[in-house]
Structure formats: structure tokens, C-alpha cells
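Mods, move this if it's the wrong board.
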Amino acid sequence: MTVPYHPKLGVVALLRFKSTILQSTLQSFTFWCLMILHALCLYLNENYDMWELEWSSFQPVLSLATFFLVFYAGSCYARFYQLHYDCIGILGAMLDWTSDAKLFFPEKPDLQWNLCRLMLCSMQMTFCTLDEGKEVAQSQWDNMQHNNLVSSEEIEVIKEFRGFQPFLPIVWALDEARAVLGRELPNSFFIMHFREQAYTMRRHACNITFMLQQPIPFAYYHVLKLLLLVSLLLLSYAISQLLEESKAFCYFIYATVCMIMLGLEDVSVAMADPF
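Not the wrong board. C-alpha cells:
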């Protein structure tokens, strides 16, 4: 869900808790496990003669984890805006198709609706599969049929189609447009206006579907998670020795670092699949 805000709020924005890394981190099992382990490190360091860890000895691990995390966040951010661009592209192509149908067939409302309903069906099929899985849920089919976007016979044909299903209604809409344009307008006109919008919608729909099917490689995420946890554990051990005389400040510093690192990871994961 998009959270509206004004960039000039300044420090006032820090007072918000909902939809921030504070909320996601404080609800994270990993965060509280790290804090418990940090308390254990403080206890062991206070009551036992623990091996001293020099601050500079684990800095390469922390730097590497930070680099991987920032790079991962950047990749997820670019992916997020590409998905947003494709979603807006589908809506834009639908508007262009509708305006062309209205402009060039002003006296044929039945034809206008028949052209647009199939494109609307394709658009809704694309968006329905984003949060329902790889297939359109039956409730969504019922909703589209109730709104006269698609008939029961067309639904059965679409379900049996083994290719990219949202493309099938687009093909039907193109066939409908070609049948009329072939009688009334030159073929080049058809190519210029209707086929361009149809293929634009198909391209954006394919981009969204196939991008979600190809997430950021698991091996990269795995090594990032490993580096992040190892670096935070080493930081816990080192900071418990460095600030052993001020436990409250030690807890505050470590909790802040964990919130930033884990919060950035949570935000990145959310951007990678915003649906």
C-alpha cells in the first residue's frame, strides 16, 4: 500500500511508526533473537574472561555485508519501479485502445464495448494473477462474467489455453477490430492504431508476469542473509566489550544498527515483490 507523505516534513516524519522499519523490525523474530544473543554476550563478557575481539578484525565482514545489502536494495528498487512502469503501461494502453474505439467507431456502441471488454478482461486477468498465484481465481472469473467482460464459453477456452492466457483476449479483440477495419479502413490504419496498443499491453503484461516468476537469485539472497547475520553477531560480541561499562548505551547502539540493517533488508524484500 502506498503511504502518502511530504518530503519536506523533516524530523516530523520520524514520529511515524506505522509502515516504517520500526514496525517491521520490532515484529521480526530475527531482531529479538539477536537482542537476546547480545544480552548473552554482555553477560558472558561481564562474568567470564572472554576472548578479546579487536574492532578492526571484523570490519571487512561488516563492510562486505553493507555493500551486499545496499546493492541488493538498489536492485530491488529498480525492479520495483520497473513493475510500477509496466502496471501504468497496461493502464495507458487500455486508455489508448478505448479512445481509439470511441473515436473511430462513434456510431457503433456495441462494437466499442465488444472491443473494450476483451481488453479489460486481459487487463483484469493480469492483475488478478499478481496476488492470487499463477491462475485466476474462480471468484475473479465470476466477477468478470458478472460485468459482461467475458462469457462462460470464452472462460472455458481461456482456461484450456496453455500459453500466456491474458494474451488470448487481446488476440480476440484484434480479430474483432480487423474484421471491421478490413471492410471500412485501410490495413495500415489498423496496424498503426489498434495493433500497436494491443502489443503494448501484451508486452507490459508479459514483463510483469515473467519478472515475478524470475526473482533475484536465491544464492545471492542466501549469501546476503549469511553475511548480514554473521556481521551482526560479530558486532554484538565486539560492542559488548567496547561498551561494557555502559550497558544501556550498548543495547541502544546495537538495537539501532540491527533496525537499520534488518529494516533495509525488509524494505528491499517488499520492493522485490510489491504485490
